Amino acid sequence: MRVSFVGMVERFAPAALRARLSRFAAIADNIVTGRDDRAVAQRMALTAFTIRVLSAVIAYASQVLLARWMGDFEYGVYVVVWVGAVIIGGLACLGIQTAVVRFVPEYAARNELALLRGILIGSRVHGLATATLIGAIGLIGVFLFRDAIAGYYVMPLYLAAICIPMLAIGEIQDGLARGFNWADLALWPTFIIRPVLIIAFTFAALQMGAVPDATTAMVTAILATYLTSVLQMGALAYRTRKVVAPGVRHYRSFTWIAVAFPIFLVEGFFNLLTNVDILIVGQLRPPEEVAVYFATVKTLALVHFVYFAVRAATMQRFSQYYASGDRVRFEATVRDSLHWTFWPSVVAVVVLLLCGRFLLSMFGASFVSGFPLIFIFAAGLLVRAMIGPAESILTMAGEQRICAAVYAGTFLVNLILNYTLIPHFGLEGAAIATSLALCLETLAVYLAVRWRLKLRCSILHVLGPRGTIRLTPRPESQT
Predict the structure, then answer these.
(1) Is residue 380 assigned to a domain?
(2) How far, in Å, CA of 229 to CA of 358, rounded?
């Protein structure tokens, strides 16, 4: 039996509030059960947001437990290595994990089932091959330069290289699921199942007498990553059989690579941009400070996952509407994405400023020293939230090269700022560098969307009843 929020309001709400609440109940009913494109996008965003909230709680709890089990030093070592592995795992896909978000709905809409079957298999073969090659190069590199690497990093780095192929497969399968609008299958494995398995396997290993260090944590991360990717692969195969009938497969490898490579540059520079501070802190500061910095960044995940939830929900829509020339729906989705990103981000920042000290104290007494960093990060994140998932709009509209150039420039600025400020200001310098880079990125992406798509992609332009994101009125409005 379907639950009706409007019916609940009519039955249980006080008469004085019934009219006002009915409007919000009708919106909730449409989000939960509506079949139009906007309702589907809202439902996917809500699903993604809910999963992100749950994943943030799980990930945060897992990081707290790991920090307490391993101590500041070993936790700091693990953080640097694991973050590096995740970055390389994403880069190893060479952009195919985002390209499939564009091609899957495109092939489905055109009923090109042979190509759809081909990309389901070909994308993963491509990712596995490149990631395995990169992982092998990593193993050889660590072996050759082991004398130049701090001893406590060597074994975790070997293990990280082994983990890279399955991290890449997981990224591609996330993209395939998003292409089919399966938010649960895209997000649950990476953000719920894998963190739970890592903490469960680590706990089991410690109970069996394993040493509580970064090496143990990396071994459990490998096991969790491989198991998660295999389970997701099975679930994806089960669902696709229901919507894509078996048949011949066609492959357009050169087309996919041509589209994926600029996306690879975008995603690569974006991943480096969002994580380079952790890697440089790991290079310039002791592991104990890395642990504090990473704990603070993890605390800010509440703000980050608003952006990622909206991005996951709208990327497929941007691609679909832009490819079909449906400018009205395309612009409506852009407007919605701005509201869905900015206002929840404001709420999340306020919550973190009120509760940040307590949240950091859960890692241990020494981690509270990272609380001032939250104020610095918050400024940059709110500026970034003002333009919503604007880089996804560019990417799905075929402007990957411009987006890549923006991120490349911002990454270089971030790199220079981090190396300049960290030696003088420590962790505060890293936070300042990252926030300044976010502000620069925001301005650059906003100007790129304005230039290429003739849209004013900012929350400032959609406030008020007459707010518009178009630079020029539509021809029909002038008649």
Answers:
(1) yes
(2) 34
